[in-house]
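Self-study notes.
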Amino acid sequence: MSPINKSDLDAITMTIASAMSQGFAQLQQTLSQTQTVVLPKAAAKPHFLPKGSHAAPTDLASKDAALINAFHRKGFKDVQLMDRTDPNKPFNVRPFKGWLEQGRIVRKGSKGIRGLFHQHQTDPLPSAKPAKKAKPQATLPLA
C-alpha cells in the first residue's frame, strides 16, 4: 500500500467538506419547510390524577394484577389483596402500619412491594411483659 500524497489528501478533504455542506443545506431546507406541531398540555396524559378524581376501575384492576404478580415472583402464592367493594373480607397484604394495628410486626430486613408486606413476612408482636421487680433487701434491725 502506498502512502497518500498531499494533493490526494486535499482532494479527499474537499470532497467530504462539500458533501457535508450540501447535506447541512438540505437538512436546513427540510427543517424550514416542516411545520412543528405542538400538542396542548391538556391533550397529554397526566402522570398523576388531578386532586379529587379517582382512577378508572380498569386501571385499579391492572395495578392489582401487577401487585399479585410481583408477590408471586417473590414466592407468595396465597396473595389476597383488600377488596375495594367490601373491606370486611379477609386479606393478607397490608402496609407496615396496617400490620402494627393488627398486632404484628414486619420482620427486619423484609422487602415489601410498593410499601406492602405479606402476612408471611410478619411475626406477632411480643407481649408486653411487666418489668421484674427487685427483691427487697433484708435489713438488719438497728440496736
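Second protein, same conventions, sequence then structure:
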Amino acid sequence: MILALLRTRRCVAALEFALLSPVFVLVFAAVVDLGNALYTWSKLEQALALGANYALINTASVTASDQTNQTLANSIATMVATSNPGHGADATVVVNNGTTATVTGTASGAGSPSDSGTASNAQSYYCLTGSPANWAWGTGYANNTTACTDGSQPGQFVTIAVSYTFTPFFLAYHFITNNTMTDGAVVQTN
C-alpha cells in the first residue's frame, strides 16, 4: 500500500503549484509595485521638466516687476503641482532668491499658491549652490562680472522643488525616502 502511494503521480502538479504560487505572487506584486513607483517618479520628473521649460520660455519675467515675478512663481508652482492628474505633488518655486510660491497638490487638483519672499532681489545675480532641499543663494551681486568661488559666473535663477508622498508596498526603493519622492531643478535665466 505504501509503495503504491509513493508511485502514484496524481495531484503532483497541484502540490507543486501550491508550493510555488506564493513565490510567483510575491514576485508579481513586487514587479507591479516597482512599476507603479517608477511610473509615479517619471510623472514627477515630467512635471518638473514642464515647470523648467515654462521658466525658460518666460525668462524675461525673472527680472521684471514684483507682480510679474510672483505671477511667474505662482504659474510654475501651480503647473507643476497639477500636471500629474490623480497624483497631486507639492511644488515650491523661488524666483531669483525672492518671490516664492508654494502649492500643495491633492488627487483632485492643487490648492491656491501660498506667496512669500520679496522681489527686491530680482535684479541681483547669485552664485547658486546646493541641492533641491537646500539651495544656497550666496551673496547678491549687482552684475555678473564677479566670479563665484567655484570660478563660474553669477546668474539669475528660478528654482523648482517638487515632492510627492508615495507609500510603496516594498520599502527597499532607494529613490523614496520617508515615503516621499523629491526632486528639483534650477533654470538659469541670465
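Instructor comment on the second fold: The beta strands are 90-95, 100-103, 105-106, 109-110, 114-116, 129-131, 134-136, 157-165, 180-188.
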